[in-house]
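Help! Submission page says 'invalid entity' but I think these are all valid:
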Amino acid sequence: MKTAIRNNGLSLFFGLIFLLALLGQGLSGHALFNEEQITHGLEEISLAQYLTSSSFAVDVSENWQSEYLQFLLYIMATIWLVQKGSPESKELDQTGPESDKDQLIGEHSNEKSPAWARINGWRHVLFANSLGLTMGLIFVLSWLVQSLTGNSAYNEEQLANFQEPLTWSEYVASPEFWNRTLQNWQSEFLAVGSMVVLSIYLRQRGSPESKPVGAAHDDTASTG
Amino acid sequence: MSETLPAPRSRRAPRIKGTIGGVLVLTLLSLLGCAPEGKGAAAAAQKFHKEVSSGNTSEACSMLGQEALEKAGGETECEEQLESVELAGSGQPLRTEVFGREAMVEFEDDVVFLVASGSGWKISGAGCTPQGESPYKCEVGGK
């Protein structure tokens, strides 16, 4: 048990703080929603009502889609693009999907390789791209959820202001939808870009996201 | 990272398992929501019209939401105010829009706005006419 916890510490830690943060978002969002209800002379709603409201769903999904887009782009861009001196980059001469030998595919696989890495055909192609496909699928679904729940939340506000609601197609072309989307995207792109560049010159001892403290600034693709 | 497929940075390890399901559940719950039904909104709007046109202003006032009631002079002046209001006949509802805790019912000659209250609906605006991009102008309640 102790070993299992230690061996999965990273995923357990992030899973736990994710749930705590989501709970905190739910509680604080509920309090904020009810503050606004009181301001407008409206009835307060229960926590369950808030957690199933489009207001809560759009706030959650707009952050999810941008995070998964960030990782999707990161996974895909780092296949082809390199950054000299960054531990986040591959070696400068290794751009592209790399050779079967490097990727331990087919005849180059070993006895510990996953079954679908050892065979050819659609299962191999699917498995060889499964990380990007999964992140991409979650991104698309989250963005779709953002558009649907965002449309509903926006229309609730429109009706409260005695204005016409928008259709889904009108909403996805609206400044509201793109402002919600792009304000998340810009921060994600900045964070990834900063990580790539800062890790050239800065170190974090013991972290695999950093080069070894004594590694040269122009040493690419090494992790500490 | 040079030896293997690029992996997401560990500082924010994603938990893919169950996430897709979570996304779908989130949508379903939020779109179904816990708001009262649209049929109830149309029925409440029709009833309000009926009460006003039949002079039952006491009942009509009790159907107003808090802000609309205040705009109509509060409980003391509401009945008197509604007596002087002439709402166009409602007829059959042409369109009902319900989003969260707000609703709008469009009749042939009138538009009524409603707000959820408990398990029912209260009137937030009636006798409303469109003003282009600006909010509807309402005879009762409204902006």
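Support: the input was valid. A stray whitespace character was the problem, and the output above is from the cleaned input. Chain A has two domains: 1-52, 54-101+131-224.
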